[in-house]
């Protein structure tokens, strides 16, 4: 399982360019040239249209009890007395309009315990961005949207909708979310939404970023998502989605981040994924995926993170992965991979993390891995690897606690420093081992996959002292 913290670096990598590419929303009540009095005076003389201001008061009262909003700031957009958490822009109608609402984290207004989702926000005619973070915590509320027939004004203007970390936000994603025709960013992460992903989401053709992670969504991934042709980030991780990954995902040619981890997806990874040439981050961990990886996987020449632990793959580890030359993290633990570690992995010059623990890998560790100068985390524990560990003392020292070779009873370390052998979890070759190994397992703590295998590679590996073959 990956914690959200572990995900943060790649997320930043992918989200940062995305944010930079979005239109700038920072025009607010503030950037008035302080030396331009005529412009300031002009804005000073502008006000909100009364119906919009009344809607805004109502939204504020539903959400926040930080202050008496009507009384303390009767003119919410006015320079000098504007509210925190809102942004306004002058419109061609000589009124100021709310374009952004941001609640939940200081310096923005905090949400009161009884806050519920204020569906009136969709009546704010110029609203472009809406952020509710950690707002709905105790009172159960749902993402209620007025029916499209009622033509809520914000349906055409809203570009960003982000409702994140709201534990009492429950219920389904309303199908008419598809009416938000200008939406570019939809983040509904870390709530308690359930039900299916509405097929109508595919109507949001301007969408750049779709994040529905950490909810309780069920059903399958709608094949229609393939029509979201501008999407650069798709995160459906940590839900209860079933069925197979629709091949139409391969149509999302702009995709840079795809995270489907921690669902119950089954079947094999579709061949069409090879079309995602811009993909930098691919996470499919903790599903029920099985079988061969797509043959065209090496076409993903921008892939930096391939994270796919915990799937019942039960195939040989594909040597083609060695052609993903930008790869920094490769995690394929707990997945029943067999065969040997491909020597082609030594070509992954930028690899920092290689996690292959708890598989059924056999044979020797490719000596070329020790040439990977950026490597700092290597876990090969709990396999059936055998032979002499091909790492020199410098490599072992550099990785330190982040090198784990334990649980491979057939491995041994050729070196004078027995402290090294303890730290990486293998015995020193020869010596006391040869005298006692026939009778008893050398490491009682070693969790060998089965007792049948625990002694066999040992005989092959450590008594024969195989030559170290360079890559
Ligand atoms: C000041 O504002 C006026 C009216 O909006 C505008 O025409 C003028 O270019 C501005 N001057 C400066 C220095 O920003
Ligand atoms: C490896 O990383 C370095 C530094 O981040 C980068 O300049 C280089 O292009 C990367 N190599 C590949 C093959 O991606
Ligand atoms: C390696 O993986 C095992 C699980 O097989 C885990 O217990 C151990 O902490 C990991 N070691 C390192 C250094 O990551
Ligand atoms: C061999 O085992 C004995 C006792 O079990 C120990 O004192 C000695 O240091 C070991 N020698 C080597 C080379 O590990």
From TrEMBL:
<feature type="signal peptide">
    <location>
        <begin position="1"/>
        <end position="28"/>
    </location>
</feature>
<dbReference type="GO" id="GO:0005886">
    <property type="term" value="C:plasma membrane"/>
</dbReference>
<dbReference type="Pfam" id="PF13855">
    <property type="entry name" value="LRR_8"/>
</dbReference>
<keyword id="KW-0732">Signal</keyword>
<keyword id="KW-0677">Repeat</keyword>
<dbReference type="InterPro" id="IPR050994">
    <property type="entry name" value="At_inactive_RLKs"/>
</dbReference>
<dbReference type="InterPro" id="IPR003591">
    <property type="entry name" value="Leu-rich_rpt_typical-subtyp"/>
</dbReference>
<protein>
    <submittedName>
        <fullName>Receptor like protein 29</fullName>
    </submittedName>
</protein>
<dbReference type="InterPro" id="IPR001611">
    <property type="entry name" value="Leu-rich_rpt"/>
</dbReference>
<dbReference type="Pfam" id="PF00560">
    <property type="entry name" value="LRR_1"/>
</dbReference>
<keyword id="KW-0472">Membrane</keyword>
<dbReference type="GO" id="GO:0051707">
    <property type="term" value="P:response to other organism"/>
</dbReference>
<dbReference type="InterPro" id="IPR032675">
    <property type="entry name" value="LRR_dom_sf"/>
</dbReference>
<keyword id="KW-0675">Receptor</keyword>
<keyword id="KW-1003">Cell membrane</keyword>
<keyword id="KW-0433">Leucine-rich repeat</keyword>
């Amino acid at each position: 399982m990956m914690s959200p913290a572990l995900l943060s670096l790649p997320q930043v990598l992918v989200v940062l360019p995305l944010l930079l590419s979005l239109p700038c929303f920072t025009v607010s009540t503030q950037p008035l040239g302080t030396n331009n009095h005529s412009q300031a005076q002009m804005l000073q003389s502008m006000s909100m249209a009364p119906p919009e201001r009344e809607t805004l008061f109502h939204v504020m009262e539903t959400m926040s009890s930080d202050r008496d909003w009507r009384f303390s700031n009767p003119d919410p957009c006015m320079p000098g007395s504007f509210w925190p958490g809102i942004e306004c822009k002058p419109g061609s109608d000589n009124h100021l309009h709310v374009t952004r609402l941001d609640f939940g984290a200081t310096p923005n207004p905090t949400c009161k315990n009884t806050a519920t989702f204020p569906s009136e926000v969709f009546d704010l005619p110029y609203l472009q961005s809406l952020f509710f973070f950690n707002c709905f915590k105790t009172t159960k509320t749902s993402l209620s949207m007025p029916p499209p027939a009622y033509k809520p004004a914000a349906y055409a203007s809203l570009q960003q909708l982000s409702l994140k970390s709201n534990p009492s936000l429950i219920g389904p994603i309303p199908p008419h979310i598809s009416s938000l025709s200008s939406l570019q960013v939809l983040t509904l992460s870390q709530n308690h939404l359930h039900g299916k992903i509405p097929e109508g989401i595919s109507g949001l053709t301007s969408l750049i970023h779709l994040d529905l992670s950490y909810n309780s969504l069920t059903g399958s991934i709608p094949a229609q998502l393939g029509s979201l042709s501008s999407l650069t980030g798709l995160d459906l991780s940590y839900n209860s989605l079933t069925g197979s990954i629709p091949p139409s995902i391969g149509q999302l040619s702009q995709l840079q981040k795809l995270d489907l981890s921690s669902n119950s997806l089954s079947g094999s990874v579709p061949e069409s994924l090879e079309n995602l040439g811009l993909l930098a981050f691919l996470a499919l961990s903790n599903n029920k995926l099985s079988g061969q990886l797509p043959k065209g996987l090496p076409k993903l020449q921008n892939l930096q993170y391939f994270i796919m632990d915990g799937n019942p793959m039960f195939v040989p580890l594909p040597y083609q992965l060695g052609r993903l030359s930008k790869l920094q993290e490769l995690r394929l633990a707990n997945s029943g991979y067999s065969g040997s570690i491909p020597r082609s992995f030594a070509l992954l010059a930028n690899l920092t993390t290689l996690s292959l623990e708890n598989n059924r890998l056999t044979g020797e560790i490719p000596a070329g891995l020790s040439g990977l100068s950026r490597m700092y985390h290597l876990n090969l524990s709990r396999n059936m690897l055998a032979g002499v560990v091909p790492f020199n003392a410098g490599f072992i020292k550099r990785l330190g606690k982040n090198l784990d070779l334990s649980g491979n009873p057939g491995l041994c370390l050729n070196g004078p420093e027995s402290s090294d052998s303890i730290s990486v979890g293998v015995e020193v070759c020869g010596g006391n081992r040869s005298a006692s190994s026939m009778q008893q397992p050398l490491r009682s703590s070693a969790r060998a996959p089965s007792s049948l295998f625990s002694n066999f590679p040992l005989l092959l590996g450590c008594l024969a002292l195989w030559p170290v073959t360079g890559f």
